Amino acid sequence: MIEHIHFYYCNDLHSHFDQWPNIVHYFNKKKKQHAQADEQSWRIDIGDHVDRFHPIAEAYNGKANVELLNEAGIDFATIGNNEGITLEHEHLYHLYDQANFQVTCGNLKPLNKNKPSWLQHSITIQTKENLNIKLFGLTAPFNAFYHPLGWHVESPYDYIEREINELKRDADILILLSHLGLSEDQLIAERYPEIDIIIGGHTHHLLKNGKEIQNTLLTAAGKHGKFVGEVHIEWDHQLDKIVNKQAYTVETEHLSQDQDTVNKLEKMNNQAQELLNKQVTYLENSLTVNWFEQTPIIDSLTDKLKDWTNADISMLNAGILLENIGAGEVTYGDIHRICPHPINPCTVKLRGIEVLEIVRGAHDEALMRFELKGFGFRGKVMGKFIFSGIDIDTDIDEAGIEHVHHVTFNGHEIEHDKVYTFATADMFTFGQMFPEIARSTTKEFYLPEFMRDLLADALRS
Predict the structure, then answer these.
(1) d(Cα 65, Cα 103) in Å, to the nearest integer?
(2) Residue 404 — φ and ψ, nearest 5°?
């Protein structure tokens, strides 16, 4: 006898709700089809459903996202870094209190307190033919961010190495819900053939028809709900093993919409706007934002960052502010719209020679016009880089290229071997935009504050 088993999933929605009604309609349609065929199916979220760039996620601290997952009929979920490190400790601790689905994230635990009631190391499903399917979730170990928020994330490899035998012992089929990224999923598949399927996310990779590594089937459905994923398994009860497993993704743009979800999102958005309509300050004059010029508002924010972190020098990119700020009442909703990024302040210790390299790199026209995607940045382009705490002497050559000649700190040339405390946005600790910042071993992150909290302070003063 062949038993047919079906899983449907989404990953890395990031509160991009445009296609969410389409996904819900697809989930519902497939659930009904399988039920009519007397087959079982389940629905899964692989994390980063929450993203506080959206007013709904911001106003409700992620709880509205959980409500949407409930109404979509989600059965299981794991945690992404946007749930894990963009919410304050208590907001994450109680995020899934009202979830109608089970949550697994084996390598996450709170520091110095009991784990929340919803957090499970693994989940076991028993099918109607008495087949045991075990699911376990793992998330990326960004402990430099998790620890200040009162959480610890164990290395996924340490966790699997310790738990793999127990996970597989009473499981006919073992499935990893991975918010670790494609390279990690591939390495896990190579090391642990006991895992039958890895449903992945985090790095926004799209595996349209899955990918097999040894015995393991990998799958992932991109980002922002542009695709929905599905996994189909055939288990032969006579042979007592999987005889077929396949993974597909389906583009969502042209799928039908669930009208109840459309209405729910509209209502949630209106309510979120009301909740965010709290006055932060009152401005006598409007403030202009220009991504390629030094303006009073980006100067004020860069100064605020330096003072707030007690740094020697600070740097921000003008593209972090998205819109002008009008005169009159300024609400938290305005602040959120102007600076929606889930980006934290941070400091690093740098030698003077490294500061000079950063200043020179920041004057690269190509970097200013770079359209960054990810690392928490929700804007369009980097924009002009603004510094506080140092004076920079430049000139422009005949080709219109700006060159840095002198950089002074407190009236004196930057000392090459002196160590300076350098404040910036945490996104520059990732990637290769500024290698000197990324490779620093003395990073300090300021959580749970976002850059928009400093913007609110700057505007008040």
Answers:
(1) 14
(2) -90, 130
Residue 441 CB contacts under 8 Å (≥ 6 apart), including other chains: none
Q: Which fold has domain 278-460?
A: 5'-nucleotidase;  domain 2 (3.90.780)
With contact defined as beta carbons under 8 Å apart, do 216 and 245 qualify? Answer: no
Q: Report the candidate in 410, 404, 408 with the shortest Cα–Cα distance to residue 385.
A: 404
DSSP 8-class letter at 256: P
**pLDDT tens digits, residue range 108-135?**
999 989 999 999 999 999 999 999 999 9
Q: Which of these, 46, 9, 217, lies nearest to 137 by C-alpha position?
A: 46
- What is this structure's pTM? 0.93
CATH 3.40.50.150 fits 2-272, yes or no: no
Contact present, 425 and 449 (Cβ < 8 Å): no
Closest Cα partner for 195 from 168, 226, 229, 166? 168
Query: 258: burial class by Cβ within 10 Å (0-12, 13-18, 19+)?
Result: buried
Sign of CA dihedral 68, 70, 71, 76: positive
Domain boundaries, the chain: 2-272, 278-460
Q: pLDDT tens-digit profile of 62-100?
A: 999 999 999 999 999 999 999 999 999 999 999 999 999
